[in-house]
C-alpha cells in the first residue's frame, strides 16, 4: 500500500488558523504553501519558461468551468510492498489507458495536476504505468507520483514525471522488518538512486511514522543525507478504520509527540482540522469511477456539491483524516 498517506499528518505544528464553519481560511497553512511554491520553482527550472502560463491557464479554466484542478489517480489496485498483515486482493485491476484518456478528454479544461497514488495500492504495480504517465503528461500541466518505491520498472525513472514522492514506513532494517515482515530497504534505496541519477523530476522523501518506527526520525535524516536528498518530510500514518492494512490501530504511533490520534472510545483525532487537505481534487479509482477522495465511496454528485461536502468534512472518512 502507499503508506505515506497523502493526507498524512506532519510532525511539524500546523501554522494555519481555523476558519469559521469549515471555511476556506482553514486550508491556509504556511508550511504547505511554502512547500508548494518551492516545488513549483523546482519544476519550473526543468520546464520551459512558458510553463507558469500553462499552470495559470489550467487553473483559470478549472475555476471558470467549476472543475477540480487536481486529479488523483489509482493506477492499480495491486501493491508492490507485500507487507505482513496486508491482505492480497482476490483480483487486481489496472486502470485502462483508454478509460483514463476518455476521462481526461471528457473534461472541459485540462487539470493542473495529475497525481498517481493509491489507497491500499501503489501505482508502480500497474502493468501500463508508463502509458498512463505519458497520457497524463500530454493532458495536464504537472504529473506527480506517490509510491513506496518498490517495483520500479526498467527505464521508468526516465518517464515524464515532474515530481516523485517516495515514502518509507521505517528508516532502519530492524524497524522496516518489524513493520513489513521483509527486508527490502536496500532495494528501495537502489530505486531511489536510479531516480536521482536520471534527474528527470524532483524527488521528495517521506518517512511515515508508525509505532515500530516512531523513533526513526534521526535515522531517516541520516539516510536522506547519505542519498543527497534535501526535500524530505516526516508524517504520521493515517488510521485505517477497516483494520486490514498497515494503518490498523496496533501500528499507530500513539505515544509519539505530535501524533494526531488518541484512543478514546475507539480511535479519534485529538483535534479535527478545518477544511479538507485534498480540496480542489477528486480521485479516479482503477475501475474508472470518481470519488471525492481516496477514502470515500464513489459519487455521481456535481463537483460543486462534492467541494462543499469536502470543505465541511461531511464524509465518514473525514473523522480520521488529519
The count of strands amounts to 11
Radius of gyration: 19 Å
Poorly predicted runs are 2-7, 12-28
Strand order of the largest sheet: 1-7-6-5-4-3-2-10-11
Q: Would you tell me the overall average pLDDT?
A: 86
Helix/strand-derived category reads alpha/beta
Helix content: 25-40%
Distance between the termini: 19 Å
* CATH classification, class level: Alpha Beta
Overall 3D shape: globular
Helical run tally: 8
Number of domains: 1
Q: H/E series, N to C?
A: EHHEHEHEEHHEHEEEEEH
**Strand residue content:** 15-25%
- CATH topology group: TIM Barrel
The major beta sheet can be summarized as: 9 strands, mixed
CATH architecture: Alpha-Beta Barrel
Describe the model:
The longest helix is centred in the first third of the chain and has 17 residues, at 30-46. This protein has eight helices and eleven strands. It is 29% helix and 15% strand. Helix 7 links the parallel strand 6 and strand 7. With 322 residues, it is of the alpha/beta class. The chain has helices spanning 30-46, 51-64, 97-105, 129-138, 173-180, 185-198, 217-227, 303-311, and strands spanning 9-10, 70-74, 113-117, 142-147, 163-168, 202-209, 232-236, 261-263, 267-269, 281-284, 290-291.
